[in-house]
Amino acid sequence: MITKEMKIGDIIRQHPATIKVFSRHRLECLECQIADLETLEHGADIHNISIDTLLEELNSVAHPNA
């Protein structure tokens, strides 16, 4: 389960399928130097994206059968 406290870099490494979700929201996290330090919640806040929507989309891609 992906949570808002997780680091963006960890999410991408553990669940590569999430890259398309980040890209759809124009979060170019693969290019970001602070992805290993920034939590998902902070990144969503900085980019004015709903954390609930982002979590739902990320988890649906990372855990499609859940």
Question: Overview of this structure, please?
Answer:
The chain has 66 residues and is an all-alpha fold. It has one domain (8-62). Helices cover 48% and strands 0% of the residues. The chain has helices at 8-14, 19-24, 40-46, 51-62. The protein is globular. The N and C termini lie close together (9 Å).
Number of strands: 0
Provide the gyration radius in Å.
10 Å
Q: Proportion of β residues?
A: under 5%
Q: What characterizes the major β-sheet?
A: none
SSE succession: HHHH
Apparent shape: globular
Helix content: 40-55%
Please, how many domains? 1
Topology, element by element:
Blueprint: H1 8-14, H2 19-24, H3 40-46, H4 51-62
Short key terms for the protein model shown above:
66 residues; mainly alpha; globular
What is the compact description of this entry?
With 66 residues, the protein is mainly alpha-helical. The chain has helices at 8-14, 19-24, 40-46, 51-62.
